Amino acid sequence: MLQLKNIYKSYITGGSRQIALDGINLKFRESEFVTVLGPSGSGKTTFLNIIGGLERCDKGDLIINGKSTKEFTDSNWDFYRNNNIGFIFKNYNLIPHLSILENVTIAVSFNGLSKKEKQEKAIEALNRVGIKDYMRKTSQYLTKDEMQRVAIARALVNNPKIILADEPTGNLDSKSTIEIMNLIKEIFKDKLVILITQNPGIAKRYATRMITFRDGEVIEDTNPLKEDLHQKEIDLKRTHMKISMAIKLAIRDISNKKLRMFFYVLISSIGIMGIALIVALLQGFNKQISGYENDTLANYPIVINKVYTNYSIHNTSQNSKQTQNDLKNSKLNTKNDIIYSYNSSQNSTEHINQVNKDYIDYIKQMDKDLVSEISYESQINMNILREDEDGKVSILDTSTINLSSYPKDNGQETYLEKNYELLYGYYPTNKNEVVLIVDEKNRLDTNILNALGIDVKKNKEIKFDDLIGKEYKIILNDEFYKKQNGHFYVDSSEKNLKKLYNSKNTITISITAILRAKEDSNLSNLPEGISYSNELFNYYIDDCKKSDIVKSQQDSNYNVITGQTLKNSKNKEDEIFEISGINILNNVNQSTTKNQMLSSLGASLLPSSITIYPKDFESKSDIIEYLDNYNKDKNEDEKILYKDTSTTINKLSTNIMKGITIVLVVFATLIFFISLITIFILTYASVLERKTEVCILRVLGGKKRDIVRLFNTENVIIGFLAGILGVFLAYTFIVPMNYGLEKITDLSNVAILKVENAIVVIAISVILTFIGGFIPAKIAARKDPVEFLKNQN
């Protein structure tokens, strides 16, 4: 069955070679009780280790059932030990944190049996050695005799063919020695037992064959086997540790060393907490910037003007490059009391936007869900009358009151509510209610106040009540302009103006609010003066377009009021013209273009500018994409260029966020590597502490990958616990951290750790501990069980 053929084994110690086995040739029967005698250092233990597959011979061959082992791999030896060998040690080598039952069960944990089958086998083995009643206890509660019985049960449970016992009674008293030897002989009577002892009395009493070693050689064999026996095929059934067993062993080790594991988890969790806080800050800063973009930058409109001017020092012309080089090389000193002249036009590029009806139609086809409002600004003249305190009616000089229109949002807050502080009155609720805009010091230009009918000479300080509720009348064109002999005129007599003022066809507008731009608003771009809704603006233009004077002017090449010939325009009739918003009554002697006349009559065909207010920041991107699509495949002079007023600020915020991200990522990386090193050290310490467990698992047939799996499983569990604790600590620390940040920056809830991010952090913790513990796990797997066993003797 078992044959050692010309076995040589030596070691190098202290620079010299020591011969442990010198040409051993032995055969063993399938069932016999062999004792091995000899002084210390004679080669007995090395002989036993080679048979057990724990050591490899330098020369020779171990033949098992006629099969050579020269080509055995590490895995083959692992399978061989688990299926064929049962070990009994002098020092028992029980795993201290496992129960008696678990110590025995672990020997059958590599052969794929179910939990129930393994437990039944272990209980049966414990029953045979007479220690079943203690199976729930750990080894610290057993006597030496009882511990050796457990070791015998562990050797028995796999039903091996060979039992290797290395001085199993070396630590027992004489009574216990006899009991253990009787037990071994009885239980293993049908197996090959090879037992090392230094007690000749035991050898003579129990052995059927005695072999004596001296200086690495066999000097006596009382019952040698000379003939060849019938050989059975060697059993090398594949073995492996199930993940469930690895989890069980890991949990038992963690629960057995609660305090140490608590500090292990705590130390690991501190690094995880740092990563979680960094993730929370990144997420919080992103949310703050996103909120800023949605609340502020999203409200920055996209503006399309007739003339698009791009100021840039990065001009691509040769002259511009030369100018930049001159600036770089010049010795300008801003501290000197000298003014340096330059031509700003060289650093700008102007583009004329040829906005036509097709483009206006394209804008109107934009998805309505993307915009809050689209404002079309035209320079028009309104026919407005005012009534003074003495009842006198006069035409209001609209060129002095800074007439402007404001957009209306589709959301809950209007443009005015978002960007202007209400000083007095109430925000407009319909198109006939207008607002009065003052500057940051509550000032209004004297001309505006005079035009509105306020006597500034008498009242240097005007109360809000003097302005709130003040009414004015808008007179539509068909009422305001009279036709006579093919021309139109305005009857500005006091009687006619009074009649017009009191007409039922007028539009009565009243000042309902006095507003001032909010300090934190970047969209409060309305000029000081009267501002009305876009709704009123559109209503007035639509009516003007239907009026007789506008229709007549459209069909005429002369000024229908003065009779003067209209100026020719180089631009097409359906394009925007740059006009000065003339008041037709004050400029009757000026020569104008047809579009300027129509604008003065309140019927501008096309707007002078288009302002698009996105609904939110995401919508702005879609709007820009929509506008860019119009310019595809068009020549440069046909393109319509726009200005996104938030671009510069958005770039700045993006760069700031990039800077913050880089800094936090650097910190996170440092924390990551510190945690990695810490986990490596702690895992390696655990490896050193668990040498017994590791080596016993290897002796019992556990493969190196089983040892790696065991430690990796434990690291994953620890990583999960550290992740849970780290996330909990992060959530706890976020509250005071946010409080401190709010005090410093006025930003509330900066750090935000979402549940999904917390889960990711826990996953990072698991991966971190796995990586950090992988190398120590590999080191553990490479531990030589022979060295461990030698150090015990």
Structure description:
There is one protein chain. The chain has 793 residues and is an alpha+beta fold. It folds into 3 domains: 2-239, Rossmann fold (3-Layer(aba) Sandwich), CATH 3.40.50.300; 244-296 and 650-791, no CATH class; 333-339 and 374-570 and 588-609, no CATH class. The chain is 43% helix and 18% strand. Strands 15, 16, 17, 18, 19, 20, 23 and 24 form an 8-stranded mixed β-sheet that branches. Helix 9 packs antiparallel against helix 20. The protein starts with a strand and ends with a helix. Residues 311-347 and 570-583 have low confidence and may be disordered.
Characteristics:
793 residues, alpha+beta, Rossmann fold, 3 domains, eight-stranded mixed beta sheet, six-stranded mixed beta sheet, 24 helices, 26 strands, 43% helix, Putative ABC transporter ATP-binding protein/MT1014
Q: Overall mean pLDDT score?
A: 81
- The second-level CATH architecture of the largest domain is 3-Layer(aba) Sandwich
Total number of domains: 3
Give the structural class.
Answer: alpha+beta
Would you report the number of β strands?
A: 26
Largest beta sheet, briefly? 8 strands, mixed
> Any idea what the shape is?
rod-shaped
Number of helices: 24
The CATH superfamily of the largest domain is P-loop containing nucleotide triphosphate hydrolases
Rg, rounded, reads 49 Å
Q: The CATH topology of the largest domain, please?
A: Rossmann fold
Ranges where pLDDT stays below 50 over 5 or more residues in a row are: 311-347, 570-583
How far do the termini sit from each other?
29 Å
- Fraction of residues in β-strands: 15-25%
